[in-house]
Amino acid sequence: MAMGFTDAVAKFARDAEQAETDVLHHALRGLDQAIVDKTPVVTGNLRNSRTVSTLGPPTIDWKVKKFRDPDDAINNAVAGVELGQTTWLGFRAPYAHKIEPERGMLRLAAQRWQQIVADAVRAVRGGR
Predict the structure, then answer these.
(1) φ, ψ dihedrals at 127, nearest 5°
(2) Within a domain: residue 65?
(3) CA 62 to centroid of chain Cα atoms
(4) Distance CA 15, CA 40 (A)
(5) I want to staple 48 with a disulfide (CB 3.0 to 4.6 A). Which of 5, 8, 67, 96 is the partner?
(6) pTM for the whole thing?
């Protein structure tokens, strides 16, 4: 049966919102990867202290001496981000603030945000 105009508009709206969500998630993962790419590795602990939160900026964890690989947790957190929701990416290792000025892991990744989003749009369009 042919789709009526109202149904077609509703489907378009659903598809557009899903595409926006897909771009957001892809861009957040791209931003995390840009941070990873700039993070120096000695033991891997700083890289492993990465986190994503929608509740507020990452907090420093003074008790943890060795952080575990956060990739699954980051992917799960990103998958739960909704359009319009503020999302924070950062480090929990107490010494991250000492390395950031020299290496610019967060700062330089943030400066690439527009390019990361453009890449995400291309990736999502290519998959449709």
Answers:
(1) -90, 5
(2) yes
(3) 24
(4) 40
(5) 67
(6) 0.90
